[in-house]
What does this fold into?
Amino acid sequence: MNKKTSEIACSFCGKEGDQVEKVIQGPSVYICSECIGLCNEMLEEDDKHELSLNGRPLPKPAEIKAHLDAHIIGQERAKKALSVAVYNHYKRVHSGTADVQLSKSNILLIGPTGVGKTLLAETLARILQVPFAIVDATVLTEAGYVGEDVENILVRLLQAADYDVKQAERGILFIDELDKVARKSGNPSITRDVSGEGVQQELLKILEGTVSGVPPKGGRKHPEQPLVQINTKNILFICGGAFDGLDKIISQRIGTKSMGFGSLLDEREGADESNLLARVEPEELIQYGLIPELIGRLPVVGILHPFSDQALMDILLKPRNALVKQYQKLFEMDGIALRFEEGALKKVVELTQEKEMGARGLRAVLETIMFEIMFDLPARDDIAECVITKEFIEHKAPPTFVYNKKRA
It folds into this structure.
């Protein structure tokens, strides 16, 4: 610098060069060391408050639930529980080695088939843009026995992350049918329970957080095979299961406590399976066949209830990817408008409830109903609109067609 120190002043705070430790010159501006320190403090403070995931702001629980609402009907309580648990989990990932160690928020979803357990997990992964994989607990066995090693569930997540280990270590892994690995019996047995309690024991260390060596293409390990090391500390595990019969175990506890004034309330709630499941305690899960250590590693429990007729009707019509919208899009691609009468949709819901398959049964019913016309109509160029009526659903009449004007 040609100027004297006393003639130089910071362009931000106005202090002269001899009043501060150092002044840095830029193009026609000066900044002192004190202002630089203040800027660094401000940037560090912003970093503390701005939670991010893979370079994007981490959505708040209300934002996560709003995204879930756009794809999934009902299950309000479960969606809130999931949103909070996921937010807390990735806050924990962001915190790193803080002075207070945060515990993992792995999740257990309980509910009958077709109520949205898998869809919730898939949608969460899509919102957060993290790798996601589904594994079925029924194929797992204790290491060394016929079946699939428990550690191999991590291979699915690694594959979903395109073999990017760092991305896989921040993904979501959904373990379905967890109730199928419940202990077969509460009494000791001569034979090992390798697909029940043995699997639960193997899951413990993975759910808690450990470094596992997994073969990149799956299969059994062997000494000469190179292994990929995956740290499960920051992987979010969501476990799901129907837990058939759990309501009966809960009702036994409630029944023993039903005395005096509260007895009528308990009896009324006992008649509703969804109310019973909402009152589940760890003791009932242990009695069902889960080991206490595993329950401790699934601190967040979400209960999903069977869908009412109105909820199934909403599922047909309201979500962004609603089934009716999907079929209408398929027909539109063939130049045909598709319309469902309200009576037809009510009949579809009725048939679905008879199958007791939840929302999954809606597609099964519709595929059966729409099979013939989806085979015939693409070859027809004289039809402008196809109207699905209740009579067609009941196999009493063909659908109603609106023909093109050019038809003779």
Summary: The first strand starts at residue 23 and ends at 25. Residues 76-95 form the longest helix (20 residues). The radius of gyration is 29 Å.
